[in-house]
Amino acid sequence: MNNHIFPCILFDGNARKSADFYCEIFNGKVTVDTQVVVNIEIFGQKIMLLNGPPMDKNPSVSFMVICDTEDEVQTYWNKLSDGGTALMDLGSYPWSEKYGWIKDRYGVTWQLFLGEKASDQKLVPTLMFIHQNNGKSVEAMEFYTKVFPNSAVGNISRYKDGGESGEDPENVMHAHFTIDDYSLFCMDNSHDHAFDFNEGISMVVMTDGQEETDYFWNSLSSEGGTEQVCGWVKDKYGLSWQVFPIQSLRLLTDPDKTKVEKVLQAIMKMKNIIIRDLEDAFNS
């Protein structure tokens, strides 16, 4: 399974507590535990939990959990309901005999779905294209699948196929696509929600070498995207990505904390990550 692309969720000091919460619910495990970064593995998939500045998570990026039985849906729902809020009540819908959408105690939203998987992924990040992006799901899928190798647009269901009344019939109700064999879902939504994509949930791309790092940085920031600091970039739809070379991990996990601090200070001054500059800082 592709673990070079994975989601990152921003927490206000609660990364470890949330990690324990999710691992208990989904029978996961903590794989990295530092003061800033906590990585967990759920269903064999990596999620980064990052302690950082306060930033609201919202349903513009949610996590679809594809369940095999009604009991599985119910079990996850009951546990996520502890301190959580239902966005769509658990029940039977045209697309699933048992489905619900819930915001947990930390503000992360989950769609629990009884049905068949579109790939070997059980946990699938789901992007909601709203406001200025409404109606751009297909365009976005074409953009992402052009940027990433081993990518394809999968099944597309439109609202005219039996979705919510009041939506543009040509808008996407649900679609599946893969980027470098990593599955995502997306949808259009015409409602004037009080939220949109932000840094609260981002996608991480672990690159190999400077050439690949530059390629993804330049591609994702193209056509109106926004370069940010520390390897973060917003694409033209406002979705945040972290483009980070695997070579930097060796430097950041070195036992010499003084050297690690020098690398961190160098990263803080960068936009796109320059591996040679990090190595110079490490060896200075």
TrEMBL record:
<dbReference type="InterPro" id="IPR028973">
    <property type="entry name" value="PhnB-like"/>
</dbReference>
<dbReference type="Pfam" id="PF06983">
    <property type="entry name" value="3-dmu-9_3-mt"/>
</dbReference>
<feature type="domain" description="PhnB-like">
    <location>
        <begin position="4"/>
        <end position="112"/>
    </location>
</feature>
<dbReference type="InterPro" id="IPR029068">
    <property type="entry name" value="Glyas_Bleomycin-R_OHBP_Dase"/>
</dbReference>
<feature type="domain" description="PhnB-like">
    <location>
        <begin position="121"/>
        <end position="243"/>
    </location>
</feature>
<protein>
    <submittedName>
        <fullName>VOC family protein</fullName>
    </submittedName>
</protein>
